[in-house]
Each structure stands twice: as structure tokens, then as C-alpha cells.
Automatic annotation (TrEMBL):
Residues 26-61 form the PAS domain. It comes from the Bacteria. Pfam families: PAS_3 (PF08447). This is PAS domain-containing protein. SUPFAM superfamilies: PYP-like sensor domain (PAS domain). InterPro entries: PAS, PAS-like_dom_sf, PAS_fold_3.
Length: 186
């Protein structure tokens, strides 16, 4: 079944900080499990999600370079935390801080991936949005997907090097900066 291209509407959806979106995929990225919050936030029915590629909810404002980094990490058996914007079935979107880990079978081989996602803070998104916009703009300057991916990955590496940080350190610094300090009024 080929999906009709969904046009982003610019309408942002959010969910409560104490709720977690959960999904599981096989090694090809096909969804094998989604929790009720995933269903609610994506705007799809569970039956329309399970068995489909996780990139069904890929928003066009999400840089390919970040997904490349994500797949490199989990493919190597490592975890990653990443800010991700997802596209809903109705064209709306929602931001998450995703924690993606490989699922290992009894023989030690990776058999799939597990992702827990919580809502992303406004303060962190104020920093992430311009970075991601620059990466997507770089991708748009190239005619082919491989060229676009290589260029945005190089730009991401360069931006992080100029900041003297890694993607992981950037994610954690934004998350820490967004957290209320002890004793601060909430």
C-alpha cells in the first residue's frame, strides 16, 4: 500500500510530560508495536501503523543527517537520544526527545529497536529548530538524496565541531538547560 504524501499544516500537538510514547520495530524499521499514546499522537489507527515503516511519520523538517546518526548508532548496538519532529496523519506535528535502543535476542544479535519518547521542552526546541532548519536547507541545495545526506551530515559535523561538542552532549546540554533548577518555582 503506497501512502499519499501528507502536507504539513504547521499545527503543533503536544502531550503531557508524564506520558511516554513507545514503539518497537524490527531491524528493517517496520513497526511491531505501538502504545496507545503513539496511536493518539500520530493520528493513525494501530492497524495502520503495525507492519508499516516507522518513517511513515517522518516530517519533512526532520534532517536526514540526524536519522543517519541514529541508524548508525543503533545499528552498532548503541543507544541514542535525539530530538525528533514527527508528522501526524492530519498534517500536524509533534516534537519529542527520543531514546532509541537496539533490542537484543537471546543469542546477542540485534533483533529490532525500541524507542521511548517524551515531550520536548520549549527551551530545548528553541535551540534545536534553527539547527535542524539549517540542515534541511543544506539538504534542499542538492539534487540527489545521497548528496543531500552527505552535505547535511558534513554540516552537522562542522557545526558540532565549531561548538566543541558532540550530538549527545548537545542533546544533554539542551535537556539540562530546559530542566527547572532545584528550588525554582514551577
Amino acid at each position: 500500500m503506497r501512502q499519499q504524501r501528507i502536507r504539513p499544516t504547521g499545527v503543533e500537538h503536544t502531550f503531557a510530560e508524564d506520558r511516554i510514547i513507545v514503539s518497537k520495530t524490527d531491524t528493517r524499521g517496520l513497526m511491531t508495536y505501538v502504545n496507545q499514546l503513539f496511536v493518539e499522537m500520530s493520528g493513525y489507527e494501530e492497524a495502520d501503523l503495525v507492519g508499516r515503516p516507522h518513517n511513515l511519520i517522518r516530517h519533512p523538517d526532520m534532517p536526514r543527517a540526524v536519522f543517519r546518526l541514529l541508524w548508525e548508532r543503533v545499528g552498532a548496538g548503541e543507544e541514542i537520544f535525539a530530538y525528533v519532529v514527527n508528522l501526524r496523519a492530519d498534517g500536524g506535528h509533534y516534537w519529542v526527545l527520543a531514546h532509541v535502543t537496539p533490542t537484543v535476542g537471546p543469542d546477542g544479535t540485534v533483533v529490532g529497536y525500541h524507542s521511548n519518547r517524551r515531550t520536548a521542552s520549549r527551551a530545548a526546541l528553541d535551540q534545536v529548530r534553527p539547527l535542524y532548519a539549517a540542515l534541511v536547507a543544506e539538504e534542499a541545495r542538492h539534487a540527489s538524496t545521497p548528496e543531500a545526506l552527505a552535505a547535511s551530515s558534513a554540516l552537522l559535523d562542522d557545526l558540532l565541531a565549531r561548538r566543541g561538542t558532540t550530538y549527545d552532549e548537545l542533546v544533554w546540554s539542551l535537556d539540562a538547560a530546559a530542566a527547572p533548577t532545584e528550588g525554582a518555582a514551577a
